[in-house]
Amino acid sequence: YQRRVHGGSTIHERMSCVSSIRRLLENAGDTAIAHGQTAYLKHVVSFHGIKSKPLSELVKTIPAATLDETVGLARELIASSFWEEKAVAVALLHRHRRSFCAAGPTVLPLVAWMLEHHVHEWATSDGLCGKVLRYLLPWHAAEIAAWGRDAHHPWKARSSCVAFVCSVAGHEDLIVSAASAAVRAYPPVPDSRFVHLGVGWALRNLSVRQPERVRAWLAEHDGVLSREGRRYALRKLKLQPDHSPSARAEPESQSEPAPSAPKAGKRKAKPVVASRKKRRVE
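and the corresponding structure tokens:
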């Protein structure tokens, strides 16, 4: 198996390596887990039934390869109908993140191709953003932000914003540009839901550094950004009570936990109130 991985320079050897990885994933899968995972992502992609931590451990058993060999493996694995195989493709590319300065001209078109043809759900899209595109930003930030204008590939448009969520500093203008382009290219309809959530996510993190700018953007794009995307963008803003009818009418999305929820619980200060009552009784 290791010899096949390291020797994956020819098409035959690369396919042999891909087959070995697939057998590894199939043998580690659990049918019961797979049914739940498939249902969670609305049957858009299939699963072998491997949880995140065991999957990470399996990836560690795949021997290292050159960047060119890894690109070949990633192209084959990302085309799979199984999410775990797509995740392995992303993880293998992540190994070479330190060499992306020189590899950008090879890796960026590869990721664009993946998002255009072989990504159909947020889990793989966001994995590529956090593990690959994030490390290409120092050299290709403007190119990635320009993907927001792509009206034919919604996962590229989402990635134009999500790629910046962990790298806001220095990219504020590009985030605003990508968000504006994405909502122009994708109206707030159900099919564009995840594009608008990506916009809201990026704006939410931008609001920590530039709250007034995000408020102004939301006011300018009132009715253009979906209500769910707007709620995402508002989560870290310290505003007056939300008077938006949509905020009262609809529950929070369950696709991503609200980071402010634990802090809100601590601010209730119930023990302090109780202690005051006790002193009055005494």
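(Above: one complete record from the training split.) Residues 204 and 236 are 6 Å apart (CA to CA).
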